[in-house]
Design brief:
Layout lengths: L1 H7 L16 E4 L10 E5 L10 E5 L6 H7 L2 H8 L2 E6 L22 H15 L7 E6 L1 H12 L6 E5 L17 H4 L7 H9 L11 E7 L8 H13 L8 E3 L5 E6 L3 E6 L11 H9 L5
Helix pairs in contact: 7-8
Length: 295
């Protein structure tokens, strides 16, 4: 775990120039069931849209919600487009989200996902949010949690964007460990149907609409190895009943390959990029995928 924490600390250097705004992060307590004692900060822009969208933005290991707010562009985009951002923070020592315990991998099973869902529900109530416009994004540990949340709560989220993650359920352990080396190293390989079944098992019996997914991964990722990207694509295309053959492929930038699978799954492979891939412009791509670039 130390290795991933050390590597992800570099994300603290990804600080964008702050935009002039009177809006600030506000810490909220007593927001609902919170079995793992997560902290909550909310960013409500000065000019919020009527019935605003809610974005759950989940930090990386070693970080916090305020760190993620300072280091990514989502706050500036919220100022521009009027959505509200919910920033959770882990309080356990490693500052990594629980994406491995049996409790975390079941809807309302306990641990971090229950607290995260409480945060979203609080924001919907408090800010008059639109329940049809709720989204989740995250980097590394936060990307893994993004996959977990859309599996656990497909009726809550309309879409997710995972930056350098692994498939939902890939990090599963039964011995109390929070680190799964086999998964991290890209050695947990399954068929699309098997991955789809794992995601579906998080909420047994659910037959409703599934969230769209945007996936990002660098080919030189040495923390959560690149094979995990293909396994994520397999998982979410299967969940949506799609072929693993893309319906379109293009290169939005010279080292980016984007593959689309209908309008449900969008996957960006970044040639020569390592684990620290949250560069300028990527947050905007996620916001556009969500449809949040419209008030």
């Amino acid at each position: 775990m130390f290795r991933i924490a050390l590597a992800l600390a570099v994300l603290l250097g990804l600080v964008v120039t702050p935009q002039a705004s009177a809006a600030t992060l506000v810490e909220v307590t007593n927001f609902g069931p919170n079995p793992s004692n997560l902290r909550l900060h909310v960013y409500k822009p000065d000019r919020v849209a009527a019935r605003p969208a809610i974005l759950l933005a989940v930090h990386y290991c070693t970080g916090s919600g305020p760190d993620f707010h300072r280091g990514a562009e989502f706050g500036r985009l919220a100022d521009q487009y009027g959505f509200v951002i919910v920033y959770p923070s882990v309080t356990r020592a490693d500052k990594c989200f629980d994406v491995s315990s049996p409790r975390a991998l079941k809807r309302d099973g306990g641990s971090d996902p229950v607290g995260l869902n409480s945060m979203v529900r609080y924001a919907l109530r408090q800010y008059g949010g639109d329940p049809a416009r709720v989204y989740v994004t995250g980097v590394s540990s936060g990307a893994m949690m993004t996959n977990v949340m859309v599996a656990n709560y497909p009726d809550v989220f309309q879409a997710g964007a995972a930056f350098a993650g692994v498939p939902e359920g890939c990090f599963a352990t039964n011995d109390g460990s929070t680190w799964n080396s086999e998964c991290a190293n890209g050695r947990v390989l399954k068929t699309p149907r098997q991955w789809g079944d794992i995601a579906r098992s998080a909420y047994p019996g659910y037959t409703g609409k599934r969230p769209r997914m945007q996936l990002w991964h660098g080919t030189q990722d040495d923390i959560l190895r690149y094979p995990n990207f293909g396994e994520e694509v397999d998982q979410w295309t299967n969940v949506h009943g799609l072929s693993t053959t893309p319906t379109s492929t293009d290169q939005p930038q010279p080292n980016w390959t984007r593959r689309r699978y209908s309008d449900k799954v969008e996957a960006y492979s970044l040639q020569g990029v390592g684990h620290n891939l949250m560069a300028s412009g990527m947050a905007l791509r996620a916001i556009q995928f969500f449809g949040l670039d419209r008030r």
